[in-house]
Amino acid sequence: PFYAGSGLDVWTMMNQAAAEVGAVNLGQGFMSFPPQCFIRRAAQEALDQNVHNQYAPPRGRPALLEQIAARFSPRLGRQLDQASEISVHAGANEALLSVFTAFLTHGQDHEVILMEPAFDQYAPNIAMAGGKPVYVPLRVLAAADKVISSDDWKIDMAELEAAVSPKTRIIVLNTPHNPVGKVFTRDELAQIGAISERHNLLILADEVYEHLTYGRDHVSIASLPRMWERTVTVGSAGKLLGVTGWRVGWAIGPRALIQPTLAAHTRIVFTTNTPLQEGVASAMRQAVSNGFYEAQRQEYERRRNRLMEIFDDVGLPYVVPDGAYYLLVNASAVRVPQDYLFPEAISSRGPNFRLAYFFIREFGVSGIPPAEFYCEPHRYLAGDYVRFAFCKTDEGLDAAAVALQKLK
Ligand code: GLN
């Protein structure tokens, strides 16, 4: 199967290519700055308690379930029951796999609708669970040779509905969206919700960037009328606290959906690591009162503005992100020479990979080729975009600014 093929995942591939030449790494979305002191201390203190070094319950440590319920009850517009409506996972990624495993059946040709560009882990996770992804691309309703808004990337709702078949089980919705930075509006969510109701589908809402929006409100689709019953909302402590290596995430939904998700989780990893669940719980408790979340949001907004300025300066247009921490840059003005030498692993994956690699070798800055976020027949839609992450230090962004001067 394709998920077990010999091809490297895009993250490892671009990290390696960047490391070879010491490029500024704006590729994979990990933070290049350390987590806040109180967050690291929370984990250290957790390790010092003997009980936190043994198995956690499969559903998760009560202290963390309590914090998740406290944060998300207002966001989802209901009092969450931590005993039945939340499960803790080994990262949001494993939460996604657990949901797919719970609701897709091998041999039944169950289908899952993805909106492209779609985070690269969805499709292989669906395949591992025995399902088949069906792709509906976001359409760009503006001329991309200028700076455009992430709002210009739209789902054609008729196209979305036409993609539904009797085998469809799930629609995956990612808001704020990686890599576009689109924050779906309440109206868009209502339309997607209406389609899910008409065809009795589940919504898997990947909302791992819910805390990072810029001048926009994030709306959880599960908070819309009648949507709670058919939605599993996935979140991430790695994203929320800037600790992507901790691998702690969660799924939230009605008992009927979380029970099978938890059953899958129990068979995939059994439980999520205990000390870091406790660390996350303690950090989330402190973050409520120490102003961390708003300070962090402002920091990201500042980094976003800085990265946009850098590309304004060198004259490459981009999509203004209203959420998450990625900038899609349109590099069609960059000419890759016909005879440029690429390693086979890069050249075989098409022009968008070659462009991202060219950025690494010639400008010393690495990004991610969004072609990886499209199915094969739709790869051309990645055009000349390269995705740059701004969850990076000021020094990193400054170094990128200097390196990119070569574009002038
Ligand atoms: N979510 C992060 C990104 O999009 C990292 C994903 C990963 O490494 N699997 O960059």
TrEMBL record:
The lineage of its organism: Eukaryota, Fungi, Fungi incertae sedis, Zoopagomycota, Kickxellomycotina. PROSITE patterns: AA_TRANSFER_CLASS_1. Its cofactor is pyridoxal 5'-phosphate. It comes from Coemansia asiatica. This is Arylformamidase. Pfam families: Aminotran_1_2. Its EC number is 2.6.1.7. It is an enzyme of class 2 (transferase). Belongs to the class-I pyridoxal-phosphate-dependent aminotransferase family. Residues 24-403 form the Aminotransferase class I/classII large domain.
